[in-house]
Design goal:
- By secondary structure, the chain is α/β, with parallel strands linked by helices.
- The strands form 5 sheets. Strands 2-1-11-10-12-13-14-15-16 form a 9-stranded mixed β-sheet, with helices on both faces. The chain has a 7-stranded mixed β-sheet with strand order 7-6-5-3-4-8-9, with helices on both faces. The protein has a 4-stranded antiparallel β-sheet with strand order 17-18-19-20.
- Helix 2 packs across helix 3.
- The chain starts with 11 loop residues before the first helix and ends in a 9-residue tail after the last helix.
- The model has no long low-confidence stretch (mean pLDDT 96).
- The chain binds adenosine monophosphate.
- Adenosine monophosphate binds next to strand 14, strand 19 and strand 20.
């Protein structure tokens, strides 16, 4: 017997309608090239999204068409998030930091009909234009006054594209399973793969983001969204903030700029902020040097890569802000686990608290997970057994977009193999020990590069640390520690390796340490182990 409840479709349009009705005056603040501090409201954003939908209809965009963006976080990108998806087209957010060949591959593979591009990223599109045959139109996200001069035909500004369009648009009644947005993930091998989200998965994911124990967000809060809208839907913030009525601050092209982020936190009285650890390192360094304390900041969401304890400590001790460490993937919309603490946590001894803080946390309701060994056998949740992490749930991708062959990640029916190696404690707290391909195999056992990096960044003279496996004649691989020192410091190999003693198993201790000026990052701000392995190819460890 079926229940007798309404079958209202779960669409992004419903989030927009709710926000328009209930939070029309909630501010949206953006940094853009044409305005250093642009202020608008959700009401105005959605009014302009309707004008955008009219303009897209006028130029012949239909249900299911892919519309590309190469854009920073700002109000116009937010208008595209809603205008495109709610008219039934698919918003394809492209990461401008990828290699140009990857950008071209992605746009062609998705068969984008239009590209909305930030003026600062426009030169990339200009250069690639002859390799992007599917693009019928290029719209630059600015007004006519700031439109870059170009020899390309038909390039118009966003403001002129939507100017003169009516404020009304009859949003279609979409099937909740229709595709809403598309984002490619770039693995270390092969072409980037497309993750195709739908309205239903997005709405369910947004509900989960709204739990108190997820982002601790509400109507009284102001969120600084530093995580890019071109990567994993900015962790769902463009949907969560309007759903909850949270004020949102977008840093535009200034995402990695300490002074701009500092100024935004102070002037907008930001209470919450979300971003990857490398961004927070930049911000904390700037605040320390400038003698700034962020009084308004309460909660900092960190994910994308493992958050070192030193970042959590500095936020807590200097700024009184609590760090929520989260784990997820583009393939998971991206939310997977959140590290919140049980009752009584405050009275735990510091060492136990620290050991808990660096973990990636417990699955948010909606995500199921398991760890398996190489033969696919499930491993116990004992906090020790490490295996390949698999997940399933309504916002986890069931396949990649237009992939010729089935991906190995979807080999086991109903599960997605994340490619991460993890252990899970009896209470469901998961800890990533490595990406499967970054694990260091020493004498048949695994060494966690993440644990070593976490421990090394605890040293007062170490700013950033990365650990990779180096070939070893006896042990197969042994760890090499690569360190960026804090400004003005030159830590010696002996003092850092000595510091690690007792913090990790003895046989995990790196065989050597090198100092570098900079650690290479990927297009999504993670340490590029691939690049490091290339850089240190042929490196001879002492005694090897
Ligand atoms: P992406 O799809 O580009 O966001 O990358 C997802 C991958 O980032 C995951 O599979 C993990 O390897 C890594 N990752 C994300 N969050 C964390 C975290 N909190 N700690 C460690 N690794 C993380």
């Amino acid at each position: 017997m079926h229940g007798l409840m309404m079958d209202s479709p779960l669409t992004i349009t419903s989030i927009m309608r709710h926000a328009e009705r209930c939070h029309p005056d909630t501010p949206v603040v953006s940094v853009t090239l044409d305005s250093p501090l642009h202020r608008t409201t959700y009401g105005e954003v959605f009014r302009r999204a309707r004008r955008l939908a009219n303009a897209l209809t006028r130029v012949g965009i239909r249900l299911g068409d892919r519309i590309g963006t190469l854009a920073w976080n700002d109000h116009r990108h937010l208008e595209l998030y809603y205008g495109v998806s709610c008219m039934g087209a698919v918003l394809h957010t492209v990461n401008p930091r990828l290699f140009p060949e990857q950008v071209a591959y992605i746009v062609n593979h998705a068969h984008d009909r239009m590209m909305f591009v930030d003026p600062l990223i426009f030169p990339l599109v200009e250069k690639l234009r002859s390799h992007l045959p599917s693009l019928e139109r290029i719209i630059v996200l600015t007004d006519d006054a700031h439109l870059p001069k170009t020899s390309l035909d038909g390039v118009v500004s966003y403001e002129s594209f939507i100017a003169g369009e009516p404020d009304d648009f009859d949003w279609p009644d979409l099937d909740e399973r229709s595709a809403s947005s598309l984002c490619y993930t770039s693995g270390t091998t092969g072409h980037p793969k497309g993750v195709l989200f739908n309205h239903r998965s997005t709405v369910l994911h947004t509900y989960a983001c709204g739990f108190k124990d997820t982002m601790n967000l509400g109507r009284q809060d102001t969120m600084l969204a530093v995580v890019p809208m071109f990567h994993a839907n900015a962790w769902g913030l463009p949907y969560t903030c309007p759903m909850l009525g949270t004020r949102v601050v977008f840093p535009g092209p200034k995402m990695g700029d300490g002074p701009t982020l500092t100024a935004l936190i102070q002037s907008e009285q930001v209470t919450h902020a979300g971003g990857v650890p490398t961004i927070w390192q930049v911000l904390l360094n700037h605040a320390r040097e400038a003698g700034v304390v962020f009084e308004s900041l309460q909660t900092v969401l960190v994910g994308g890569s493992a958050c070192p304890l030193s970042i959590m400590e500095e936020f807590r001790e200097r700024h009184g802000a609590h760090v929520i460490h989260a784990w997820g993937m583009t393939e998971m919309s991206p939310l997977g686990t959140i590290n919140t603490f049980p009752a009584g946590f405050d009275s735990w001894p510091k060492e136990r608290q620290d050991a808990q803080r660096v973990k990636q946390g417990r699955p948010v309701f909606g995500v199921e997970m398991k760890i398996v060994d190489d033969d696919g056998r499930e491993l116990p949740w004992d906090g020790k057994s490490a295996g390949i992490l698999k997940v399933r749930g309504p916002w986890v991708c069931s396949d990649y977009f237009k992939l010729d062959e089935k991906s190995s990640a979807h080999e086991e029916p109903g599960w997605f193999a994340t490619g991460d190696v993890a252990n899970i404690s009896p209470d469901g707290t998961m800890q990533i020990t490595d990406r499967a391909k970054d694990v260091i195999k020493s004498g048949g056992e695994w060494i966690s590069s993440i644990d070593l990096e976490n421990a090394a960044t605890g040293h007062p003279k170490v700013l950033q640390a990365a650990v990779i496996g180096i070939k070893h004649p006896k042990w197969d691989e042994r760890p090499l520690l690569i360190v960026v020192p804090r400004p003005g410091e030159t830590p010696s190999r002996e003092e850092v390796l000595g510091y690690l003693e007792g913090k990790v198993a003895k046989w995990w201790l790196p065989d050597d340490m090198v100092i570098v000026d900079k650690i290479p990052l990927t297009a999504t701000g993670k340490i590029s182990k691939l690049e490091l392995r290339k850089q240190f190819e042929g490196y001879r460890l002492p005694g090897a």
